[in-house]
Amino acid sequence: MGGWALGISGAIVAVAAVAWATRGLLRCLSVLRQIERGLSSLGQGRPIRPTRTRAPGPVGRLARTFDAVAPELQERIGRLSRDVEQLRVVLGGMAEGVIAIDSRRRLLFANTSADQLFGLGPQAVGRLLPELIRSPQIQEAVDATLAGPETYRGEIVLPSREIIPRQMSRVLAVHGALLPGPTPAGAVLVFHDVTELRRLERMRQDFVANVSHELKTPLASIKAYTETLLDWALHDENVNVRFLNRIEEQADRLNQLILDLLSLARLESGHEVFQHGPLAVSAVVETCIETHRGRAEAKELDLRLDLGPVGESTLIVADEEAVHQILDNLIDNAIKYTPERGWISVACRLTDDAVELDVADSGIGIPRDDLPRVFERFYRVDKARSREMGGTGLGLSIVKHLIQSIGGQITVESRVGEGTRFTVQLPRYKPG
Fold first, then answer.
1. Taking the CB of residue 378, how many other CB atoms lie within 10 A of it?
2. Considering the entire predicted model, what is its pTM?
3. What pLDDT is recorded for position 48?
C-alpha cells in the first residue's frame, strides 16, 4: 500500500513538472510570437506593440532587448522609407532619363522619363538591359561605365523609330557612373535629351552663314562700283550716274536686310511689344492695297480687293502695325513674283472665330516640295531670282512670327505656273 501511494505521488509530481515546463514553453512561444509580430510591423510601417514580458531566462532577456531597441529601429526604418520615397519622387520628376543596373546588366530602376524615352514598361525591372534597349551605342556606354572608376560622358544618336516618329533622330547626352561599393555593384546612367539644343546650334550656324552671305553680296557690289568710280569712271558721265544708282540700290538692300534682321530678332525674343486690341480690319486692308497700287500698275497687274462680308464694324484682336506688316509682305511678294499683266487678289471671309484674309496671285508658283519651308529664314525657292528682285529671304518668316504673336494662323497653297494663295486667320474681337 505504501509503495502504491509513493508511485502515485511520483506521478503527480511528474505531471506537475511537465505542466510547469509546458506553461513556461508556451509563455516563451507567446513572447517569441510577439517579437515576430513586432519584426513584421517594422517592415510594414505599422506601430510596434512592446512585449512587456517579465519572463525569466534567455527569452525574457531577448524580449526586453527587443522592447528597448524596437522604437529606435522603427524610427530608422521610417526615416529610410521617407528618404527612399523622396528620392523616388525627385527622380520621377526629372526631365532626364535615369537608369540603374547591376553588375550583370539587369535593370534595377528606371524613372518616368526613362520609361517614356525607351518604352520600358512596368515589367522591365529585373530584365537584362540589352533585351530592353536594343542599341549598340547604349551598350557601349554601359560597358565603358562598368569598365573603370572614371565617369563616362558621351553622346548617342538614336533613330526615330525607337523613340519618336516623324523625326530623323534623337540625340542623347549620356553620363554614367558606378554604384558605390567595394566592388562595382552596377552603374547609373543619366540620359539628357539634347536634340533641340543640337537643332538650335545648327540653326545658329546656318543663320550666321546665311547672314554673312547676304551681307557680303551687296557689300561686294558697293565695293566694286566704288573702286571702278575711283579708278576711272568718276568723271565719265556715261557711267558714273548709273554706277551711283547701283550703289544706292545695294545700300538700300543692305539697309532693308538689317532692318528685317532686327525686326525678326525682336519678334523671336519677345521684345517686339504690340498692343493687340480691337481693330477695324477693313480700313487696314484698304490702306495696304492703296500703298501697293502704284507698283502693281507699273507692272500692269490687276490688284483686286474683295472685302466680302467684312465691314467697318468687323473687329479683330490685333495691333495695326503688325497687320500692316503682314499684308505688306504678302502683297509685296505677290507683286514681285507675278509676271506682267497678271492679277493679285485680296479677299476677306468671316468665320465664327476669325477673319480670313486671302492673298492670291497668278504668279510663278511654288513647287510642292518647297511649300513646307517657305516660312524659314533665308529660304528661297529661286535664290538667283529672289536676289535679283531685292528680297532678303526674311519676309515670310517675319509674317509667321507676327501672326503667331497675334494668335492667328497662316497656310499656303500653290501650283507651279498657276499662282499662290496665302490664307491668314486673325482672331475676331468679341465684346463682353
1. 17
2. 0.58
3. 65
Rounded Cα–Cα distance for residues 188 and 100 (Å): 4
Strands 277-280 and 315-318: antiparallel
Domain housing 151: 94-193
Nearest-angstrom CA–CA distance, 283 and 66: 89
Of the chain, the end-to-end C-alpha distance in Å amounts to 118
Nearest CA among 414, 357, 411, 345 for reference residue 381:
414
Domains contained in the chain, number: 4
Q: What DSSP string describes 106-121?
A: BEEEE-HHHHHHHT--
Looking at residue 26, its pLDDT comes to: 55
User: End of a domain among 193, 214, 230?
Assistant: 193
Q: Identify the CATH number of the domain in which residue 408 sits.
A: 3.30.565.10
Which residues have C-beta within 8 Å of that of residue 386, sequence separation ≥ 6? 380, 393
Could you count the other beta carbons within 10 Å of the beta carbon of residue 366?
20
CA distance 187 to 190: 10
Same structural domain, 431 and 294: yes
For residue 154, what is the domain's CATH number?
3.30.450.20
Q: For residue 357, which phi and psi values (nearest 5 degrees)?
A: -115, 120
The pLDDT score that the predictor gives to residue 167 is: 45
- Specify the pLDDT at position 59: 62
Pair (55, 102) in one structural domain: no
Please say if the pLDDT value at position 15 is more than 60.
Answer: no
Residue 289: pLDDT over 90: yes
Residues facing residue 357 across a β-bridge:
348, 424
> Are 131 and 231 found together in one domain?
no
Same domain for 278 and 241? no
Number of neighbouring beta carbons within 10 Å of residue 417: 9
pLDDT of 383: 57
For 39, 195, 203, 239, 376, the CA distances from 200, given in Å and listed in that order, are: 57, 9, 5, 47, 13
What phi and psi values does residue 308 have, to the nearest 5 degrees? 55, -130
One domain, residues 320 and 427: yes
Query: Binning pLDDT at 50, 70 and 90, where does residue 162 land?
Result: very low
Detail the DSSP E strand segments found in 143-244. 152-159, 169-178, 186-193
**Where does residue 58 rank: exposed (0-12), middle (13-18), buried (19+ CB within 10 A)?**
exposed
Q: 321 and 422 share a domain?
A: yes
Instruction: In whole angstroms, give the CA distance from residue 339 to residue 300.
Output: 9
